[in-house]
Every structure is written in C-alpha cells, then in structure tokens.
UniProtKB/TrEMBL annotation:
It comes from the Eukaryota. Its main location: nucleus. Residues 275-299 have a biased composition (Basic and acidic residues). PROSITE patterns: BRIX. Residues 275-329 are annotated as: Disordered. Belongs to the RPF2 family. Residues 303-314 have a biased composition (Basic residues). Residues 30-253 form the Brix domain. InterPro entries: Brix (IPR007109), Rpf2 (IPR039770). The keyword Hydrolase does not apply. This is Ribosome production factor 2 homolog.
C-alpha cells in the first residue's frame, strides 16, 4: 500500500497550489527551518546562526525552544513543514550522550524523507574571521574533497544533504564575472587503515570514520596576464568540524517518488529542455542542431549525364596505326 497521500483538489485555487508542489523541470530554492530543541549549547546556537546566515533569504529561524526529538517523533517537523511550506530542517540539540548535536532532515510530500545526525567537534564563528563576507542570496560553489563522498554510503548521504541544503548542482562552466562570491569546501579526513569501509553501523561512525571539515572562503579574481584570471581564496568562516552519528535512510518508495521527474512537452523538448535526444542539441542561439550519419558514398555510381560536357564516353580500343590521326603540319 502506498505511503504517499493523494489529495483531490476541491477548486481551481487548490489545484494550482498542488501543481506548484509537483516536480518541476527547474526546482525552486528550498526553504530551511532552523529549530532549537529544549536543551541546546552555545556552540550549537552559534553554528545554526552561521548556517542560517549562509542560507538567507531562503531560511526561517525559530527563536523559541521546542520539545522536539526528530529520531523519536516526527510529528512536530511535519507540522512545521506544512505550515511554512518548507522541505528542509536543521534541529539543534545537546545532551550528555550526544553533545553539540545537529540533525539535518529532508521532507517530501509533508513527511520526513530521511535524516542525518552530525556532532560538532570544533567550531570557529564567522565573526572571528577578519575578512570580507559574501552577499546575501548568492549561491555558493561547493567542492567535496575525498573519494568517500562518492563511495561510502554515509558520506554519500552527507553530500546529498548538503547539496540539497544549498541547492547545489553540477556546472559545466563557471561565470567569471558576478557569478560566484564564495566557496564551500567540504573535506573528509583520511580513512583509518583499520576501519572497514563497508561498516555502516552506528558504532563505526564516531570511532573509525574520519571527521568532516566544513570551510567557507570568499573568492576574488586577480589579473594573471591571460584570459583566465588568478583566483584568490580568503577564509570567511564559519569553520566547523563534524562527525557522523546517526542516519535514518529514506523509504524506498518515497525516495523513488522524490526522484521522479515531470513529463516534458514535445515543444519544450524541441527547445532544448527535458531528456536530450540522440544527435540533437540546441546551440547558444536557441537553434536546434542535428547530426546525420550517412552510408559511404560510391562516386562511381553518381549520375553525371545531365550535361553534354559531362557525358561519359567509352574509351576506344586502338588496335592499329590506322586508328591514329596524324597532323601533317
């Protein structure tokens, strides 16, 4: 039985609202809600403050404490998500068993999709760096340094959450002017030689797996004497060291629906949107360009008798000297 809700619209206004929540070809910016639990620490509050500053204006900060425990009860998160039309959460908690705790939650269809719990091991606030800051609302360039983000299931989950958090996506080209102001660098330390890379248990997270280093740099372009400028990075903060604690994976059916892409009209496909057709692409001017693959042509079979001058005459067989005409002069 399907776990997803099916809502039948009662009027045109509700139908339009539901259509806006359906999968889109180009997704809009996701809103993140920062919520504090009953018990938090100064480190957790300052970390959430800086993460909120990097996400503005697509972020909502709840200043009051809430009796919320994401891994035990998700009712509060689902209520906040539906009320604020938000699909991402960061919950700050603190306890003796799990000190300085951050829980990243993703929602789908008003319900919890998956969660990941990270512990803050070291933190340096953005205010402690005497450097220029990026503008509000500018999307960062995200860089992941380590093969673990592509091979280990827990680090793959961290990468997926952080990319969703800052709405990151793959780019083939980077605009040099006015495109990027800051870079978020996420690095995983070297793997312990005694650690089992296939061990995804909770105990293996804090003992053997390396920490995640979250750094933010401002980007400045300098003259280099060539077309490509020289790039200078200056750390702007925050600087956060994180360790992986718990992960709640998504339900298989919900994840399948969350990754579903909308159907694209034929007219949109011809304009270059949707699934790319083989040997057909759209250039920078918006013109559709295609490639034709033909068989090898035999030039001997080409029709060349349309003009008298191009008529092919058979060669005469010269058998005697009588066939040769000699000019007496």
């Amino acid at each position: 039985m399907s776990m997803l809700r099916t809502i039948k619209p009662k009027n045109a206004r509700v139908k339009r609202a539901l259509e806006r929540r359906e999968p889109q070809i180009v997704e809009n910016e996701k809103t993140v809600i920062f919520v504090r639990g009953q018990s938090t620490s100064d480190i957790v509050r300052n970390v959430m403050k800086d993460l909120y500053a990097l996400k503005r204006p697509n972020a909502i900060n709840f200043s009051r404490k809430n009796d919320i425990h994401p891994f035990e009860d998700t009712a509060s998160l689902e209520f906040f998500a539906n009320k604020n039309d938000s699909s991402l959460f960061v919950t700050g908690l603190h306890s003796k068993k799990r000190p300085h705790n951050l829980v990243f939650t993703r929602m789908f269809d008003g319900r919890v999709l998956d969660m990941i719990e990270l512990g803050v091991d070291d933190f340096k606030a953005m205010d402690e760096f005497d450097s220029p800051k990026s503008s509000v609302g500018v999307r960062p360039l995200m860089v992941f340094h380590s093969d673990l983000f592509d091979t280990h299931p827990k680090y793959q989950a961290v990468k997926s959450h952080l990319l969703d958090f800052y709405n990151g996506h793959a780019l083939s080209e980077i605009p040099l002017i006015g495109g990027i102001e800051h870079v978020i660098s996420i690095t995983a330390g070297p793997l312990d030689p005694d650690a089992d890379i296939n061990d995804v248990s909770a105990s293996a997270s804090e003992k053997n797996l390396p920490k995640i280093h979250f750094r933010v740099y401002t980007l400045k372009l300098l003259a280099s004497g060539s077309k490509l400028p020289k790039i200078q990075l200056t750390e702007m903060g925050p600087s956060i060291d994180l360790s992986i604690r718990r992960i709640q994976d998504a339900d298989e059916e919900m994840m399948k629906m969350a990754n579903k892409r909308p159907k694209v009209a034929k007219s949109d496909i011809e304009k270059g949107l949707g699934k790319k057709k083989k040997n057909i692409e759209t250039d920078t001017m918006g013109d559709k360009v295609g490639k034709l693959h033909l068989e090898r042509q035999d030039l001997n079979k080409m029709q060349g008798r349309k003009m008298k001058g191009l008529k092919v005459r058979p060669a005469k067989n010269l058998t005697s000297t009588e066939d040769i005409e000699v000019d007496d002069e």
